[in-house]
Amino acid sequence: MSVSPKVLIVGTTSDYIDWIRHSCPDRALFLTEPAVRRQAQEPCPSPAEEILCDLSDYDQAKQLLERHLLEEKLQLGGIVSFDCESMELAAVLAQQYGLPYPSVQAVQNCRDKHLSKTLWQRQGLHTPRNRLVRSAKAAANFFLELGVACVLKPLSGSGSELIFRCDSARDCEQSFLKIQSGLQQRRAQRLYRPFSADDSAILAEECVNGFEYSCDFVIEDGRVEVIRLTRKILSPGKPFGTALGYYLPASLPAEIDERDLLRTLYRSAAALGLDRALCMLDFMVCKSRIVLLELAPRPGGDCLPFLLRRSRGLDILKLFLDFSQRRSLRLNHSPDSRAFIGLRLHARQSGILKKIDAHRVQQDARVHEIHLIRKAGHSIKLPPDDYDSWLMGHIIFEPDAVGEAALQCRELLEKLVLEID
Protein backbone atom coordinates (compact mmCIF):
# COMPACT_ATOMS: atom_id res chain seq x y z
CA MET A 1 0.00 0.00 0.00
CA SER A 2 1.39 3.39 -1.00
CA VAL A 3 1.88 6.04 1.70
CA SER A 4 0.91 9.65 1.03
CA PRO A 5 3.83 12.13 1.01
CA LYS A 6 4.44 13.71 4.40
CA VAL A 7 4.84 17.35 5.40
CA LEU A 8 8.11 17.81 7.26
CA ILE A 9 7.64 19.98 10.38
CA VAL A 10 11.04 21.42 11.23
CA GLY A 11 11.56 22.24 14.88
CA THR A 12 8.33 23.08 16.67
CA THR A 13 6.94 22.77 20.19
CA SER A 14 5.33 19.71 21.73
CA ASP A 15 1.87 21.33 21.94
CA TYR A 16 1.97 22.14 18.22
CA ILE A 17 3.05 18.58 17.48
CA ASP A 18 0.11 17.24 19.47
CA TRP A 19 -2.27 19.70 17.78
CA ILE A 20 -1.11 18.67 14.28
CA ARG A 21 -1.25 14.96 15.07
CA HIS A 22 -4.93 15.38 15.97
CA SER A 23 -5.99 17.85 13.26
CA CYS A 24 -3.88 16.31 10.47
CA PRO A 25 -3.44 12.63 11.40
CA ASP A 26 -0.74 10.75 9.45
CA ARG A 27 0.16 13.83 7.39
CA ALA A 28 3.28 15.05 9.20
CA LEU A 29 6.82 13.98 9.98
CA PHE A 30 8.38 15.90 12.86
CA LEU A 31 12.03 16.91 13.10
CA THR A 32 12.35 17.77 16.78
CA GLU A 33 14.94 18.91 19.31
CA PRO A 34 15.50 16.19 21.96
CA ALA A 35 14.97 18.75 24.76
CA VAL A 36 11.47 19.49 23.45
CA ARG A 37 10.53 15.82 23.68
CA ARG A 38 12.10 15.40 27.15
CA GLN A 39 10.09 18.32 28.55
CA ALA A 40 6.82 17.51 26.76
CA GLN A 41 3.65 16.79 28.69
CA GLU A 42 1.81 15.59 25.58
CA PRO A 43 1.87 11.98 24.31
CA CYS A 44 4.97 11.00 22.38
CA PRO A 45 4.58 10.36 18.62
CA SER A 46 5.54 6.96 17.27
CA PRO A 47 9.18 6.54 16.14
CA ALA A 48 7.95 6.58 12.54
CA GLU A 49 6.45 10.07 13.06
CA GLU A 50 9.32 11.89 14.72
CA ILE A 51 13.08 12.28 14.31
CA LEU A 52 14.98 13.62 17.29
CA CYS A 53 18.19 15.52 16.50
CA ASP A 54 20.24 18.63 17.22
CA LEU A 55 18.70 21.12 14.81
CA SER A 56 21.79 23.34 14.94
CA ASP A 57 23.75 20.54 13.25
CA TYR A 58 22.52 20.73 9.67
CA ASP A 59 24.64 17.80 8.45
CA GLN A 60 23.28 15.54 11.18
CA ALA A 61 19.71 16.65 10.41
CA LYS A 62 20.20 15.85 6.71
CA GLN A 63 21.67 12.41 7.43
CA LEU A 64 19.03 11.40 9.98
CA LEU A 65 16.21 12.59 7.73
CA GLU A 66 17.56 10.73 4.69
CA ARG A 67 18.00 7.53 6.70
CA HIS A 68 14.51 7.81 8.21
CA LEU A 69 12.83 8.32 4.84
CA LEU A 70 14.59 5.23 3.46
CA GLU A 71 13.84 3.03 6.46
CA GLU A 72 10.17 4.05 6.70
CA LYS A 73 9.72 4.20 2.90
CA LEU A 74 8.42 7.76 3.10
CA GLN A 75 8.42 10.72 0.73
CA LEU A 76 8.12 14.42 1.46
CA GLY A 77 5.41 16.52 -0.17
CA GLY A 78 5.85 19.74 1.79
CA ILE A 79 7.89 21.47 4.49
CA VAL A 80 7.03 24.08 7.15
CA SER A 81 8.63 25.67 10.18
CA PHE A 82 6.75 27.45 12.96
CA ASP A 83 9.92 28.56 14.80
CA CYS A 84 12.12 31.44 13.64
CA GLU A 85 15.31 29.64 14.67
CA SER A 86 14.40 26.60 12.53
CA MET A 87 13.42 28.39 9.32
CA GLU A 88 16.93 28.40 7.84
CA LEU A 89 17.26 24.63 8.29
CA ALA A 90 13.82 24.24 6.68
CA ALA A 91 15.05 26.30 3.71
CA VAL A 92 18.17 24.13 3.40
CA LEU A 93 16.15 20.90 3.48
CA ALA A 94 13.55 22.30 1.08
CA GLN A 95 16.28 23.02 -1.44
CA GLN A 96 17.71 19.53 -1.02
CA TYR A 97 14.35 17.81 -1.62
CA GLY A 98 12.96 20.24 -4.19
CA LEU A 99 10.10 21.41 -1.97
CA PRO A 100 8.43 24.83 -2.13
CA TYR A 101 9.75 27.07 0.64
CA PRO A 102 11.44 30.49 0.92
CA SER A 103 15.13 30.53 0.01
CA VAL A 104 17.91 30.59 2.61
CA GLN A 105 18.65 34.20 1.67
CA ALA A 106 15.00 35.22 2.06
CA VAL A 107 14.91 33.61 5.51
CA GLN A 108 18.07 35.47 6.50
CA ASN A 109 16.57 38.71 5.20
CA CYS A 110 13.57 38.18 7.48
CA ARG A 111 15.46 37.07 10.56
CA ASP A 112 17.93 39.98 10.57
CA LYS A 113 15.84 42.94 11.77
CA HIS A 114 18.33 45.52 10.54
CA LEU A 115 18.64 43.91 7.12
CA SER A 116 14.83 43.73 6.82
CA LYS A 117 14.49 47.44 7.47
CA THR A 118 17.32 48.27 5.08
CA LEU A 119 15.65 46.31 2.27
CA TRP A 120 12.28 47.92 3.01
CA GLN A 121 13.77 51.40 2.97
CA ARG A 122 15.35 50.73 -0.42
CA GLN A 123 11.87 50.00 -1.78
CA GLY A 124 10.43 53.19 -0.33
CA LEU A 125 8.48 51.42 2.43
CA HIS A 126 8.03 53.13 5.79
CA THR A 127 9.95 51.68 8.74
CA PRO A 128 11.45 53.30 11.86
CA ARG A 129 14.72 55.20 11.47
CA ASN A 130 17.40 52.84 12.69
CA ARG A 131 21.10 52.14 13.05
CA LEU A 132 23.41 49.35 14.14
CA VAL A 133 25.23 50.31 17.34
CA ARG A 134 28.20 48.49 18.83
CA SER A 135 28.73 50.37 22.07
CA ALA A 136 26.73 52.04 24.82
CA LYS A 137 28.08 55.40 23.69
CA ALA A 138 26.97 54.80 20.10
CA ALA A 139 23.49 53.96 21.37
CA ALA A 140 23.38 57.18 23.39
CA ASN A 141 24.56 59.19 20.39
CA PHE A 142 21.77 57.72 18.25
CA PHE A 143 19.23 58.91 20.81
CA LEU A 144 20.75 62.41 20.89
CA GLU A 145 20.67 62.62 17.09
CA LEU A 146 17.04 61.49 16.95
CA GLY A 147 15.87 63.84 19.67
CA VAL A 148 12.99 61.46 20.51
CA ALA A 149 12.54 58.16 22.32
CA CYS A 150 14.20 55.13 20.74
CA VAL A 151 14.10 51.36 21.10
CA LEU A 152 17.06 49.00 21.49
CA LYS A 153 16.73 45.34 20.53
CA PRO A 154 18.79 42.33 19.39
CA LEU A 155 19.16 41.74 15.66
CA SER A 156 17.10 38.59 16.07
CA GLY A 157 14.63 37.54 18.68
CA SER A 158 11.04 36.84 19.57
CA GLY A 159 8.24 38.94 21.00
CA SER A 160 9.39 41.57 23.48
CA GLU A 161 12.47 39.67 24.62
CA LEU A 162 15.42 41.99 25.40
CA ILE A 163 13.63 44.98 23.87
CA PHE A 164 13.88 48.27 25.75
CA ARG A 165 12.37 51.71 25.27
CA CYS A 166 14.85 54.50 25.99
CA ASP A 167 13.80 58.04 26.91
CA SER A 168 17.28 59.39 27.60
CA ALA A 169 20.89 58.89 26.58
CA ARG A 170 21.46 57.26 29.97
CA ASP A 171 18.61 54.81 29.30
CA CYS A 172 20.33 53.87 26.02
CA GLU A 173 23.65 53.18 27.71
CA GLN A 174 22.05 51.02 30.41
CA SER A 175 19.79 49.17 27.97
CA PHE A 176 22.68 48.42 25.63
CA LEU A 177 24.55 46.76 28.49
CA LYS A 178 21.43 44.81 29.54
CA ILE A 179 21.00 43.46 26.01
CA GLN A 180 24.67 42.54 25.79
CA SER A 181 24.41 40.67 29.09
CA GLY A 182 21.16 39.00 28.02
CA LEU A 183 22.65 37.85 24.73
CA GLN A 184 25.69 36.47 26.54
CA GLN A 185 23.39 34.44 28.80
CA ARG A 186 21.50 33.19 25.71
CA ARG A 187 24.54 32.48 23.53
CA ALA A 188 23.69 28.77 23.41
CA GLN A 189 20.12 29.38 22.23
CA ARG A 190 19.55 28.79 18.50
CA LEU A 191 17.30 31.85 18.33
CA TYR A 192 20.23 34.18 18.99
CA ARG A 193 23.35 32.19 18.15
CA PRO A 194 23.95 33.35 14.54
CA PHE A 195 23.54 36.99 15.56
CA SER A 196 25.69 37.09 18.69
CA ALA A 197 28.83 35.17 17.78
CA ASP A 198 30.65 37.59 15.49
CA ASP A 199 30.18 41.07 16.92
CA SER A 200 28.28 43.10 19.50
CA ALA A 201 25.90 44.82 17.06
CA ILE A 202 22.52 45.81 18.48
CA LEU A 203 19.69 47.53 16.61
CA ALA A 204 18.67 51.01 17.69
CA GLU A 205 15.53 52.43 16.13
CA GLU A 206 13.11 55.28 16.51
CA CYS A 207 10.18 54.60 18.85
CA VAL A 208 7.08 54.98 16.69
CA ASN A 209 3.85 56.00 18.41
CA GLY A 210 0.57 54.63 17.16
CA PHE A 211 -1.55 51.49 17.09
CA GLU A 212 0.27 48.18 16.64
CA TYR A 213 -1.14 45.40 14.46
CA SER A 214 -0.25 41.83 13.62
CA CYS A 215 -1.29 40.22 10.35
CA ASP A 216 -1.09 36.77 8.75
CA PHE A 217 -1.28 36.71 4.96
CA VAL A 218 -0.50 34.57 1.93
CA ILE A 219 1.58 35.80 -0.99
CA GLU A 220 1.34 33.64 -4.12
CA ASP A 221 1.11 34.09 -7.90
CA GLY A 222 1.65 37.84 -7.63
CA ARG A 223 -1.24 38.45 -5.23
CA VAL A 224 -1.87 38.71 -1.50
CA GLU A 225 -4.74 37.45 0.65
CA VAL A 226 -5.18 38.37 4.31
CA ILE A 227 -5.82 35.51 6.74
CA ARG A 228 -6.26 37.57 9.87
CA LEU A 229 -5.66 41.13 11.07
CA THR A 230 -5.41 41.70 14.81
CA ARG A 231 -4.70 44.77 16.90
CA LYS A 232 -2.28 44.34 19.77
CA ILE A 233 -3.42 45.39 23.21
CA LEU A 234 -0.17 46.45 24.86
CA SER A 235 0.42 46.19 28.58
CA PRO A 236 1.64 49.44 30.19
CA GLY A 237 2.92 47.66 33.27
CA LYS A 238 4.97 44.94 31.54
CA PRO A 239 8.31 45.10 29.69
CA PHE A 240 8.15 47.37 26.66
CA GLY A 241 6.33 45.82 23.71
CA THR A 242 4.66 43.04 25.72
CA ALA A 243 1.29 42.14 24.21
CA LEU A 244 -1.41 41.89 26.86
CA GLY A 245 -3.74 40.53 24.20
CA TYR A 246 -4.87 40.46 20.59
CA TYR A 247 -8.17 41.92 19.32
CA LEU A 248 -9.84 40.19 16.36
CA PRO A 249 -11.08 41.42 13.95
CA ALA A 250 -9.14 44.67 13.85
CA SER A 251 -10.07 47.67 11.75
CA LEU A 252 -7.55 50.08 10.30
CA PRO A 253 -8.02 53.88 10.36
CA ALA A 254 -10.28 55.16 7.60
CA GLU A 255 -7.34 56.79 5.80
CA ILE A 256 -5.86 53.32 5.08
CA ASP A 257 -8.09 51.31 2.77
CA GLU A 258 -7.85 47.64 1.89
CA ARG A 259 -5.87 48.33 -1.29
CA ASP A 260 -3.24 50.24 0.71
CA LEU A 261 -2.89 47.30 3.09
CA LEU A 262 -2.68 44.65 0.36
CA ARG A 263 -0.17 46.68 -1.62
CA THR A 264 2.02 47.15 1.47
CA LEU A 265 1.82 43.46 2.42
CA TYR A 266 2.89 42.42 -1.07
CA ARG A 267 5.76 44.91 -1.26
CA SER A 268 6.97 44.09 2.28
CA ALA A 269 7.28 40.38 1.42
CA ALA A 270 8.67 40.88 -2.08
CA ALA A 271 11.38 43.24 -0.81
CA LEU A 272 12.69 40.42 1.41
CA GLY A 273 12.75 37.90 -1.44
CA LEU A 274 9.42 36.19 -0.76
CA ASP A 275 7.20 35.40 -3.74
CA ARG A 276 5.30 32.45 -2.26
CA ALA A 277 4.90 32.20 1.49
CA LEU A 278 2.51 32.30 4.41
CA CYS A 279 3.72 35.31 6.39
CA MET A 280 3.27 37.14 9.64
CA LEU A 281 3.84 40.90 9.67
CA ASP A 282 3.94 43.22 12.67
CA PHE A 283 3.39 46.88 11.88
CA MET A 284 2.33 50.21 13.37
CA VAL A 285 -0.14 52.72 12.03
CA CYS A 286 1.30 56.17 12.65
CA LYS A 287 0.15 59.45 11.12
CA SER A 288 -2.11 57.66 8.62
CA ARG A 289 0.62 55.42 7.24
CA ILE A 290 1.77 51.84 7.77
CA VAL A 291 5.20 51.54 9.44
CA LEU A 292 6.76 48.08 9.11
CA LEU A 293 8.38 46.40 12.15
CA GLU A 294 9.18 42.78 11.30
CA LEU A 295 8.10 39.93 9.04
CA ALA A 296 8.53 36.16 9.18
CA PRO A 297 7.51 33.44 6.68
CA ARG A 298 5.32 31.65 9.21
CA PRO A 299 1.96 32.28 10.90
CA GLY A 300 1.76 34.14 14.19
CA GLY A 301 2.11 31.98 17.28
CA ASP A 302 1.44 32.37 21.00
CA CYS A 303 -2.35 32.48 21.59
CA LEU A 304 -3.17 33.49 18.00
CA PRO A 305 -3.82 29.97 16.60
CA PHE A 306 -6.22 29.34 19.51
CA LEU A 307 -7.92 32.70 18.92
CA LEU A 308 -8.44 31.91 15.23
CA ARG A 309 -9.71 28.42 15.93
CA ARG A 310 -12.22 29.57 18.54
CA SER A 311 -13.46 32.74 16.82
CA ARG A 312 -13.34 31.74 13.14
CA GLY A 313 -13.19 27.96 13.13
CA LEU A 314 -9.89 28.35 11.25
CA ASP A 315 -7.01 25.97 11.98
CA ILE A 316 -3.95 28.02 10.99
CA LEU A 317 -1.56 25.11 11.65
CA LYS A 318 -3.47 22.86 9.26
CA LEU A 319 -3.69 25.74 6.79
CA PHE A 320 0.11 26.05 6.80
CA LEU A 321 0.43 22.34 6.01
CA ASP A 322 -2.13 22.69 3.22
CA PHE A 323 -0.24 25.65 1.79
CA SER A 324 3.04 23.72 1.82
CA GLN A 325 1.41 20.99 -0.31
CA ARG A 326 -0.29 23.50 -2.64
CA ARG A 327 -3.76 22.48 -1.50
CA SER A 328 -6.65 24.95 -1.83
CA LEU A 329 -7.03 27.16 1.22
CA ARG A 330 -10.31 27.76 3.04
CA LEU A 331 -9.92 31.00 4.96
CA ASN A 332 -13.47 31.17 6.39
CA HIS A 333 -13.90 34.93 5.91
CA SER A 334 -17.08 36.22 7.51
CA PRO A 335 -18.18 39.85 7.09
CA ASP A 336 -20.26 39.89 10.29
CA SER A 337 -17.74 38.20 12.58
CA ARG A 338 -18.03 38.83 16.30
CA ALA A 339 -15.09 40.33 18.17
CA PHE A 340 -12.83 38.11 20.28
CA ILE A 341 -9.74 38.77 22.38
CA GLY A 342 -6.83 36.46 23.11
CA LEU A 343 -5.66 37.51 26.60
CA ARG A 344 -2.18 36.44 27.72
CA LEU A 345 -1.63 35.52 31.37
CA HIS A 346 1.62 36.60 33.05
CA ALA A 347 2.95 36.11 36.55
CA ARG A 348 3.55 39.28 38.55
CA GLN A 349 6.54 38.07 40.55
CA SER A 350 9.37 35.57 40.50
CA GLY A 351 9.28 32.44 42.63
CA ILE A 352 7.72 28.97 42.75
CA LEU A 353 4.12 28.65 41.59
CA LYS A 354 2.10 27.35 44.53
CA LYS A 355 -1.40 27.57 43.06
CA ILE A 356 -3.11 28.62 39.84
CA ASP A 357 -6.92 28.75 39.84
CA ALA A 358 -9.08 30.04 36.98
CA HIS A 359 -12.46 29.01 38.49
CA ARG A 360 -13.73 32.62 38.79
CA VAL A 361 -12.55 33.35 35.26
CA GLN A 362 -14.47 30.34 33.96
CA GLN A 363 -17.67 31.66 35.51
CA ASP A 364 -17.46 34.91 33.53
CA ALA A 365 -20.01 34.80 30.68
CA ARG A 366 -17.57 36.47 28.28
CA VAL A 367 -15.02 33.64 28.51
CA HIS A 368 -15.02 30.93 25.84
CA GLU A 369 -11.73 29.13 26.51
CA ILE A 370 -8.99 28.96 29.15
CA HIS A 371 -5.61 27.42 28.40
CA LEU A 372 -3.26 27.08 31.39
CA ILE A 373 0.25 25.81 30.68
CA ARG A 374 1.73 25.79 34.22
CA LYS A 375 1.19 23.68 37.31
CA ALA A 376 2.13 23.98 40.96
CA GLY A 377 5.88 23.68 41.40
CA HIS A 378 6.72 25.67 38.26
CA SER A 379 9.71 28.01 38.69
CA ILE A 380 9.11 31.59 37.55
CA LYS A 381 11.63 34.25 36.60
CA LEU A 382 10.53 37.64 35.37
CA PRO A 383 12.02 39.54 32.41
CA PRO A 384 14.68 40.43 31.53
CA ASP A 385 16.05 37.24 33.11
CA ASP A 386 13.46 34.99 31.43
CA TYR A 387 10.65 35.76 28.99
CA ASP A 388 9.15 32.27 28.90
CA SER A 389 8.61 31.06 32.45
CA TRP A 390 6.38 33.98 33.48
CA LEU A 391 3.75 33.11 30.84
CA MET A 392 0.97 31.14 32.52
CA GLY A 393 -1.32 30.59 29.51
CA HIS A 394 -4.15 32.52 27.86
CA ILE A 395 -7.89 33.20 27.83
CA ILE A 396 -10.10 33.54 24.75
CA PHE A 397 -13.09 35.78 25.45
CA GLU A 398 -15.78 37.77 23.68
CA PRO A 399 -15.67 41.36 24.94
CA ASP A 400 -18.80 43.29 25.77
CA ALA A 401 -19.92 45.80 23.17
CA VAL A 402 -19.50 48.50 25.80
CA GLY A 403 -16.32 48.86 27.77
CA GLU A 404 -12.76 49.47 26.64
CA ALA A 405 -10.94 46.28 25.61
CA ALA A 406 -7.88 46.80 27.83
CA LEU A 407 -10.11 47.44 30.84
CA GLN A 408 -12.03 44.18 30.23
CA CYS A 409 -8.71 42.35 30.01
CA ARG A 410 -7.66 43.72 33.39
CA GLU A 411 -11.04 42.77 34.89
CA LEU A 412 -10.53 39.14 33.88
CA LEU A 413 -6.92 39.10 35.07
CA GLU A 414 -8.07 40.15 38.53
CA LYS A 415 -10.19 36.99 38.71
CA LEU A 416 -7.20 34.68 38.12
CA VAL A 417 -5.72 33.33 41.33
CA LEU A 418 -1.92 33.03 41.28
CA GLU A 419 -0.11 32.11 44.49
CA ILE A 420 3.69 32.31 44.22
CA ASP A 421 6.24 31.72 46.97
Relevant terms:
D-amino Acid Aminotransferase, Chain A, domain 1, Rossmann fold, 27% strand, alpha+beta, single chain, 8-stranded antiparallel beta sheet, Dna Ligase, domain 1, 421 residues, 14 helices, 4-stranded parallel beta sheet
Architecture overview:
This protein has 421 residues and is an alpha+beta fold. It folds into 3 domains: 96 residues, Rossmann fold; 78 residues, ATP-grasp fold, A domain (Dna Ligase, domain 1), CATH 3.30.1490.20; 210 residues, D-amino Acid Aminotransferase, Chain A, domain 1 (2-Layer Sandwich), CATH 3.30.470. The protein contains 14 helices and 19 strands. It has an 8-stranded antiparallel sheet, with helices on both faces. Strands 3-2-1-4 form a 4-stranded parallel sheet, sandwiched between helices. The protein has a 4-stranded antiparallel sheet with strand order 5-8-6-7, sandwiched between helices. Strand 1, helix 1 and strand 2 form a beta-alpha-beta unit. Helix 7 packs across helix 8. The protein is globular and about 60 Å long. The mean pLDDT is 92.
Assigned CATH architecture of the largest domain: 2-Layer Sandwich
Q: Give the uncertain stretches in residue-range form.
A: none
Mean of all residue-level pLDDT scores? 92
SS class:
alpha+beta
